[in-house]
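Subject: Interface between my chains keeps coming out wrong

I've been trying for a while to get a sensible model of this assembly. When I model each chain on its own everything looks fine, but I need the whole thing in one frame so I can look at the contacts. Pasting all components below, labels as-is. Any help appreciated, I'm running out of ideas.
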Amino acid sequence: MDEMIRERIKQVKKGDQSAFEDVVSFFQNKIYQHCYRMLGNAHEAEDIAQEAFIRAYVNIHSFDDRRKFSTWLYRIATNLTIDRIRKRKPDHYLDAEVKGTEGLNMYSQLADNGRLPEEEVEGLELQRYIQQEIIQLPPKYRSIIMLRYIEEFSLQEISEILDIPLGTVKTRIHRGREALRKKLRHV
Amino acid sequence: MKCNNEAVELMHKYLDGDITKEQEQTLSQHLESCDACQRHFHELKRTITFIQSAEQIKAPANFTATVMEKLPTEKKRIKYTR
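Reply #2:
Try treating it as a single job with all components included. I did that and got this:
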């Protein structure tokens, strides 16, 4: 499959727009899912996922063929989702870290509609509940947890996608796992 | 070994495949004697399984076609690059 993608990218670079269709088709579910989990709603996910492919197409000449296309594409998509999250006004202050909590923010302190986790599980499928907990992680942990465990990138690849040092990826994945452990331990 | 620092640090190293043989031995010896850490480790592994079992989400049916329609036309792109 990597070979097919490499071939299509070459064609797109030569000006064959139609070759991009196979690229979109191959990555659409992965990128849409990534955006959906980052943003938490279908409308924004569709909007941002489309934008990610359009930007990839427009900037295809800046893609270095020696690198992995998926890493590059996820980087575009992740940056777009983070920009979108930042632009959401009401969330702006929610994202600010609370003093002395080491990376935890207001999200983790808000009661989830006042309902207890146990009640949530009864009302929703377990998968949906987990999805909800992932979405409540601060974006900087959420992106890494998803890239690692849902998209199955290596820590090194995640460091490239997010353009942050490997050590930072490790610190954040530890904190993300601990935060989710605390939320999911009673499930 | 202090449970809440060292042992947890080693658990995360283990999960990232960063653990050395000696560290792995230290960790497993500690887990055998400490229920709290054993539970902690179990919860971490279970959390990962939970994340991986999250619902698969698919793009809307007409996604690719919509993207293709929205791409800038080739003419325009050529004009930009020349």
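Reply #3:
Confirming on my end. The two ends of chain A are 38 Å apart (CA to CA).
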